[in-house]
Amino acid sequence: MRFFTAGESHGKGIFAFVDGFPAGLKVDNDYINKLLFLRQGGYGRGGRQKIEKDQIDILSGIRKGITTGAPILIAVWNKDFREVKESFVPRPGHSDLAGALKYGIKDTRFISERASARETVGRVAVGALCELLLKEFQIELISFVTEIGGIRARIPEITDYSDFSRIIENSELYTPDSEAEAKMKEMIDAARRKKDTLGGVFEVRVKGVPPGLGSHTQWDKKLDGRIAQAVMSIQAIKGVEIGIGFEAARRFGSEVHDEIIIEDGKIKRASNRAGGTEGGMTNGNEIVVRAAMKPISTLYNPLRSVNLESLNQEPALVDRSDICAVPAASIVGRAAVAIEVTRAMIEKFGGDSLSEMLENYKNYIKRCENIQEWIK
Ligand code: EPS
Predict the structure, then answer these.
(1) Nearest ligand 1 atom, CA 112
(2) Residue 265: predicted pLDDT
(3) Which of 98, 115, 336, 338 has its CA 20 to 30 A from that of 31?
């Protein structure tokens, strides 16, 4: 399975094109629209989200609500479709200057219209479609905000994803710690008053993943690497870690690796510091991914920049923007991980139809459970 997005922030719409998606999946449009709705939300968002009401329009690949195996084309039409005013003063931190140099264009709108995080509408639509497929294999995902502007949330033990999702969706910052949330909101208000922006950290988890997705045999088949690339490619993401991530570098090996134990005749792990991947493959444990988002680069109190026409020192472009978009990014991160896990599932279990995949999956799980017979 592969996918691409197209579309500009103030163009006609955002489009997602998915090729190689298995046939036979019943598509719940409401589920996809719900994730698009969550992507639009979160305390600290700017004025644009009051204009848009992101909903999918399926243009191909789905008949009578069921995937046909043909390419799927999804459109989300922009309500704020308009010709944006040209701009010659790049924002530090945005794609403006690097893109202007690369493409030899002074009007940075030629760059920023496509670089805009509005593109993530397409990724969330594809991610939600992938989640519907993963549900058929009892694979579930959640994401939540763990940190904003240096304020950290306490994360409880998460057993039931549905219960936890309800807590997250009732929080304006998609975080489970209401005390921390209140402080985060104060920080966002302070940033708004200072005409500044704030970043943070979010976490994505995946439960019910079978062992053996991805492969140790080649660099570009390693699932941890693929997940890192998918998440790092989200606008404004500057760091990605899996499991205990950077913390592993500060501990002894005995405090990092997850012991292998036998319980009721089943092989289990005593902990999950690896975050569900070893050797570039899933090990059957929960996948845990965290990502660091930098503050949005459009500042109402702009940093110094240079006018690309006059070469005069000028304040950077000031435009409508978000103060904090970490909750929205957590939904995009969830989509990015769902897409990579789905691609790996299709690779492992054959992707023409859902029924064929399910048969192969059940057979493989049975073999894994009967480990002495399976591993010879
Ligand atoms: C976004 C819509 C955009 C931006 C944001 C993402 O709306 P507008 O530019 O019309 O205000 O708020 O884009 C960026 C963060 C960016 O870097 O360009 C959205 O729908 O997510």
Answers:
(1) 18
(2) 86
(3) 115
Domain housing 73 = 2-374
Determine which residue's CA is closest to atom 10 belonging to ligand 1.
48
Per residue in 64-76, pLDDT (tens digit) is 999 999 999 999 9
Q: Give the pLDDT of residue 331.
A: 98
81 Cα: distance to centroid of ligand 1 (angstroms)? 13
**Based on the structure, what is the number of domains in the chain?**
1
**Does the CB atom of residue 50 touch ligand 1 within 6 A?**
no
Binding site membership of 2 for ligand 1 (Cβ less than 6 Å): no
Any ligand 1 atom below 6 A from CB of 171: no
Distance from the alpha carbon of residue 356 to the mean position of ligand 1, in angstroms: 41
Strands (E), the chain: 2-6, 13-19, 57-60, 62-63, 66-67, 72-77, 140-148, 151-152, 200-207, 237-242, 260-263, 266-269, 277-278, 281-282, 287-293, 304-306, 313-315
Q: In this model, does residue 23 exceed pLDDT 80?
A: yes
Mean pLDDT of 86-111: 98
Burial class (CB in 10 A: 0-12, 13-18, 19+), 44: buried
Shortest-distance atom of ligand 1 to CA 235: 17
- pLDDT more than 70, % of the chain: 100
| 175, pLDDT greater than 80 | yes
Which contiguous run of DSSP H or E holds residue 79? Answer: none
CATH number at residue 82: 3.60.150.10
Q: How far is the CA of 374 from the centre of ligand 1 (A)?
A: 51
Is 9 near ligand 1, meaning CB less than 6 Å away? yes
